[in-house]
Amino acid sequence: MSDTLNPLNPDQLELIAGHVLDDLSDTEKQQIGEIWNDAVEAESDSLHLTAASIQMIFDNPPEMPDDLRRIILTDAQAFFAEQRVSPAEHGGETPAATLALPTPKVLRREWVAWLAAAAAILLAVGSWIGNRPSQVTDAVGLRRALVAEASDLIEVAWSPGKTPFPRPVQGDVVWSNEAQEGYMRFVDMPVNDPTQRQYQLWIIDPARDDEPIDGGVFDISSTGELVIPIHAKLKVLQPVAFAITIEKPGGVVVSTQDDLPLLAAVPSTEA
């Protein structure tokens, strides 16, 4: 037999998995001894790590995103279909494979062999198993973190402005002066054409200036619930309101506020 096993075929992978699980028969032990080389040893080490990771998952299973679950189950179906269907077994013709999930009769070693491939998928999509990023990078997660951690959080709901939308828009603004960070949340905000008009946030802060602070130009590309970060151009001292205007593409330095569909007023803290 050739000393080079690259790539290892499914039968060889199953033998290695049996070696990892210590359930080889005497005949199988002889077979794996005949094919043992550096490639087999490396695969064996990899499967040992995979088996340990699998045990950790079973002991403390994390929540798996639905999309990732579907990808892994689909790949599992394909893997086992390939193991059980061959042209030689069907008169030289390959039958249509029935992609059914493996039953309890499937050998444990086959699961270990397949999960080694699944582990590669998990690593490719961002190391779902362990070592996940400690900092959330999406706006929804960042907003949630700010709400949970900010001791000076301002949270106010949107209400219709002087030129309200035809249909009500729900949502709110959250802001922290200490962090100088905030987010706008919209539900059913009308989609805009950025070549014709754009939304612009204004932060009304009389403690700083008579003119509102530019909070950033943004677009709404889809209906439903969206979270948009606030990009204040100046330091905010004591906001009393947040306003949305509709402006020309690129926004403006000073708004006429002729088209102001949304307003979020901060309740007064004075007795």
UniProtKB/TrEMBL annotation:
One cellular component (GO) term of this entry: plasma membrane
Alphabetized GO MF terms: sigma factor antagonist activity
Alphabetized InterPro entries for the sequence: Anti-sigma-K/W_factor, RskA_C
Residue ranges occupied by any Anti-sigma K factor RskA C-terminal domain in the UniProt entry: 114-252
Pfam families in the record: RskA_C
GO terms of biological process kind: regulation of translation
Domain of life, per lineage: Bacteria
Name of the featured protein: Anti-sigma-K factor rskA
Organism: Stieleria varia
